[in-house]
Amino acid sequence: MSLVWNTLLVHPILNILVALYALFGNMGAAIVVLTVLIRTILIPVVLPSMKTMQKQRDLQPELEKIKEKFKYDKQKMAEEQMKLLQKHGVNPATGCLTQIVMILVLIALYNVINKFTHGTNLNEINQSIYFAFLKFVDGTQINTQFLYMNLIKPDPYYVLPVIAGIGQFISSKMMMPYVAEGEKAALVTTDRKDDLAYNMQEQMLYMMPLMTVFIGASLPAGISLYLLVTTIFSLVQQYFVSGWGGVAPWIKKLSTIAPKFK
Question: Per DSSP, which regions of the chain are E strands?
């Protein structure tokens, strides 16, 4: 299993990173370009999932109506919700498969970056490099200095993890265009179950960015840089798929406040 994992994912990504490092002479620039390159390659895989999620969000009010109508018949509720999804060409399994692929690629990318940022023996890295001209000679010092930080050590000012956390919060908020419907459902539901579901959704909205900040602050800055670039790419991608979504009310408020400061 380890051989398959390394052959299909880890070693190819490692070789691309080494080639980019040879091109730019800086590990930070190589990580940025590698992350963008991989996320670009994965667009055909990610896009169907994002469109599926968008359709599910658009159908959420109707799904909630079915949930309320058949709340005492769980089997009928599931059947009617599935019929609605099928009617609109939504396959929930698409999102699951895409997420599995994304997670596998991201874990492999994390492992590759980790090899360099934790100062793995160069001889061990050389064994995984395909081409001899890309291999490191004995005594090579990899340039891990990027901007104000050393990518081997955590970001001393926590700038990268904080910005990554903020970006993830905005991206998650953009994926929630039907929050208003959720609030209405929570208010009218007498058994308060919707309140619990809505509150859990809100908690996840804040929990994931906080986890990103915490994880990024404790890991080498090279990993934080990867998290930041991934978050920015996801945010831009999400905008082109679903627009501002749940962030739209903030944009409107800013547009009304901005003229006052001119």
Answer: 145-146, 149-150
